[in-house]
Amino acid sequence: MTSWWCRAPWACAGIITGIYFWAGWRALGVASQAPAGFAVGQTEYGTATPVFKEEFIARDSGRMEHVASLCELSDRRLVAVWYSGSHEGSSDVALLLAVKPADEDAAWSNPYAVVTPNTVARELRRPVAKVGNAVVFTDAGDRLVLVFVSLPFGGWALSSLNAKVSSDGGTSWSPAQRLTATPLFNLGTLVKNKPLPLVRGGLLLPVSHEFLGRFPGMLLLATGDETVEIAGMRRLCGGRRFFQPALVALDRSTGVALLRAARTGEKIGLASSRDGGASWSEPKSTRLDNPDAGIDAVALSGRRVLLAFNNQRFGRSNLAIAVSADAGVSWATVATLEDESGAEFSYPFMLRGRDGAIHLVYTWKRRNIKHLTFNEAWIEAKLRRAL
Predict the structure, then answer these.
(1) 64 close to 86: Cβ distance less than 8 angstroms
(2) CA 171, 203, 185 angle in degrees (round to 5)?
C-alpha cells in the first residue's frame, strides 16, 4: 500500500493549484478598479460621397502573414502590426510594423521587425521560444502601445502578455515588460482586438484566457511614458462557449461585446454593459454564424454597430460586414468582401479614423495583409441596393 506520505506532495500540489485557480477567477470576476464610463469620440460625419479603396501591406514576402492590428496617430498616420514567419507558432515568427502617411494616396512603408523571440528574451531575461498575436493602439498621450503574446514553449495555453511603448511614432521602443494578467501562474492570456478608452483615463482591453478552457475577459490598463500597468481584471462571463471579445461603446454608459464562438459551427455571442463597462450581461447567441474565427466591430453614427466576420458555419473563405441598429440584436449584411472556396480570409480588425473613414485589415490567404478603406456613404449605398 502506498503510504500517505508518498501521496502528500501530489495532494499538496493539487490543493495549491486549486487555490490559484480559484483566486485567479475571483480576481477576474472583481476588478480592483472598475471602469467609470466609456470615452466616446465623434460618431457623426457628413461625407456624402461613397469611398472604397483596397491595398496590400505586407509586400508578398513569401512568408506567412497573419493577425493584423491597426491604430491612428494624432497626425493621422496609420500604424499596422502583424506577425510573420514560416508558419504560425514557428520560432522565426516576428512582429512586423508598417506605417502609412496621412496622405491617402501614399503607400505603406516597408515593414520592419519590432519584436522577435530573441529580442524579447533579452529584454525580459527569460526564455521566449515564439511570439504571437499583437494589438497596437494609442493612449491619451498619443504614445504607441504594443501588447503582444510570447511563449516559453508549447502551445497558446502557456502564453503570457508583454508590452512595449513608443513616444516617437514607432521609431524607438521601450524594453518589453511582462504583464501579470492572472494569478493563475500568469498563463494562457491572449489579445486580438482593440481597447476602449475610458472617461477617467486608462483603457479597457479585451482579452481571452485559454488555460483549461476558453474564456473572455478584460484588463484595465494604465499607461505611462515607458510603462503599462494592469489596474484591474474582469471576467466577462463564465462557461466555455465564447472568447476573444470585440468591444464597442455606443455612448458613455452603453457598450456591447461581440464574442467569437469557442467551437466551429456555432453563433457569434453578444453581451452588453449599461454602466460604462463596470458590469456586463451574460452573453447570448446571435443569429450570425461563426466558424470559430476572429471578429471585430466599430461604432457607426446613429448608435449603430459595424461588424466584420466570416459569414459561414465552417471555414474562413467568406469575409463579410454587417450593420446592427439595435445594439447587436439584429443584423443586415452590407457586403461580402471576399469569397473564394478553399482560401482563407480571417482575423479582421477595424478602426474608425478621425475623419470618419473605416479602416479594415485582415489576413489575406495567409500570404499578405489586406487594407480596406471605406466610409458610411459607401455602407449606406450598399444597404440601399440590398433592399
Answers:
(1) yes
(2) 90
Query: Nearest CA to 256 among 234, 238, 276, 271?
Result: 271
pLDDT digit string, tens, across residues 135-172: 999 999 999 999 999 999 888 888 999 999 999 999 99
What are the residues whose beta carbons fall under 8 Å from the beta carbon of 357, sequence distance 6 or more? 51, 373, 374, 375
Give CA–CA dist 193/96, Å, rounded: 17
Residues with Cβ within 8 Å of 10's Cβ and at least 6 positions away in sequence, in order, are none
Q: What is the DSSP letter of 91?
A: T
Is 341 exposed, middle or buried (CB count within 10 Å of its CB: 0-12, 13-18, 19+)? exposed
Enter the C-alpha cell of residue 104. Answer: 491617402
Rounded Cα–Cα distance for residues 317 and 4 (Å): 56
Query: What order do you get walking across the sheet with 52-56 strand by strand?
Result: 52-56, 368-374, 358-364, 345-352
Could you give the C-alpha distances from 207 to 94, 147, 282, 364, in angstroms and in order?
21, 11, 17, 24
pLDDT confidence band for 5 (50 / 70 / 90): very low
State the pTM of this model: 0.91
> What do you get for the CA distance between the two ends of the chain, in Å?
76
pLDDT at position 230, please? 94
DSSP lists the bridge partners of residue 85 as 64
CATH no., domain 48-386:
2.120.10.10
The full DSSP string for 38-89 is B----------S--EEEEESS---SSEEEEEEEEE-TTS-EEEEEEEESSTT
| pLDDT tens-place string over residues 23-81 | 444 444 444 467 879 999 877 777 689 999 999 998 778 899 999 999 999 999 999 99
Query: What does the mean pLDDT of the chain come to?
Result: 89
Domain ranges of the chain: 48-386
d(CA 94, CA 312): 30
Closest CA to 37 of 245, 208, 216, 196: 196
- Residue carrying C-alpha cell 482575423: 347
- What are the tens digits of pLDDT across the range 168-197? 999 999 999 999 887 656 788 999 999 999
